[in-house]
């Protein structure tokens, strides 16, 4: 497919740990990751430059009951290591489909991943490789949402995608409030002011400062990623709606 047919030619997709665990409380569900890899390989074949930031909440989450009483810094580092398990699992799944990949880690793990260097990440993307960023920002107290915003800005992505289990950003939690309104477009400022926590506030602020659009969409609906890169309205677009945003 010609790049001229693409709305977004360079994307960063944020995947939470929930994507990997399926309906279970913890762990990895291979079938879900296999399906996701099929979709990702399809857009790579469309000449989309693809990068991903992977969470680790399906294995360990710093704010979960199991972490109660732990030192927060230690808990966050355990969570970062958990993201590498998911990153390597996704890498293997993609490579079995013929996609060239590289895992870059914010914490040095020389035996299994390359260290994160911006120029190296850009070079891999130019060569058509899928770049998977592991270990978040490499620092405690920052979410993988923030890592996704940071990496997207650094690699000059056209858009930051956040895949969820709902259709976009709602006025309230749709599972608790069935009458909640789905926003098709909303400003960064309104997301922050209304405390709509579908995306971490620090990540939203980073994107606002750098004018990077965010699309929150339902990752469980097959074909949504392809629809987005082709420019079809999908999920919720978060952007500056006026000069003050």
Keywords:
alpha/beta; 8 helices; globular; Carbamate kinase
Question: How would you describe what is shown here?
Answer:
The chain contains eight helices and eleven strands. The model has no long low-confidence stretch (mean pLDDT 92). It has one domain: Carbamate kinase (3-Layer(aba) Sandwich), CATH 3.40.1160.10. Strands 4-3-5-2-1-6-10-11-9 form a nine-stranded mixed β-sheet, with helices on both faces. The chain has a two-stranded antiparallel ribbon with strand order 7-8. It is of the alpha/beta class and 245 residues long.
How many beta-strand elements? 11
Look at the structure and name the CATH superfamily.
Acetylglutamate kinase-like
What is the chain-wise order of helices and strands?
Answer: EHHEHEEHEHEEEEHHEHE
Going across the major beta sheet, what is the strand order?
4-3-5-2-1-6-10-11-9
Count of structural domains: 1
How would you summarize the topology of this molecule?
Layout: E1 10-15, H1 18-21, H2 30-44, E2 49-54, H3 72-95, E3 101-105, E4 114-115, H4 118-126, E5 130-134, H5 144-154, E6 159-164, E7 169-170, E8 182-183, E9 185-187, H6 188-193, H7 201-210, E10 214-218, H8 224-229, E11 236-239
Parallel strand pairs: 1-2, 1-6, 2-5, 3-4, 3-5, 6-10, 9-11
Antiparallel strand pairs: 7-8, 10-11
Helix pairs in contact: 5-7
In short:
The chain has 245 residues and is α/β, with parallel strands linked by helices.
């Amino acid at each position: 497919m010609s790049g001229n047919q693409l709305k977004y030619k360079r994307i960063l997709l944020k995947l939470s740990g929930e994507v990997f665990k399926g309906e279970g409380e913890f762990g990895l569900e291979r079938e879900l990751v296999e399906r996701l890899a099929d979709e990702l390989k399809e857009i790579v074949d469309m000449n989309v430059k693809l990068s991903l930031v992977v969470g680790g909440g399906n294995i360990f989450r710093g704010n979960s009951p199991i972490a109660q009483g732990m030192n927060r810094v230690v808990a966050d580092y355990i969570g970062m290591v958990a993201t590498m398990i998911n990153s390597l699992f996704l890498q293997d799944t993609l490579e079995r489909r013929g996609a060239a990949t590289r895992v870059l880690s914010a914490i040095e793990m020389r035996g299994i991943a390359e260290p994160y260097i911006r120029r190296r990440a850009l070079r891999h993307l130019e060569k058509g490789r899928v770049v998977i960023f592991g270990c978040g920002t490499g620092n405690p107290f920052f979410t993988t949402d923030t890592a996704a915003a940071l990496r997207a800005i650094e690699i000059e992505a056209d858009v930051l995608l956040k895949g969820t289990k709902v259709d976009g950003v709602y006025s309230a939690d749709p599972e608790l409030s069935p009458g909640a309104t789905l926003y098709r477009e909303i400003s960064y400022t309104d997301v922050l002011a209304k405390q709509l926590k579908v995306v971490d506030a620090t990540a939203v602020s980073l994107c606002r400062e750098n004018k990077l659009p965010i699309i929150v969409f339902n990752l469980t609906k097959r074909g949504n990623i392809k629809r987005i890169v082709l420019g079809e309205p999908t999920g919720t677009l978060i952007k500056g709606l006026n000069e003050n945003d």
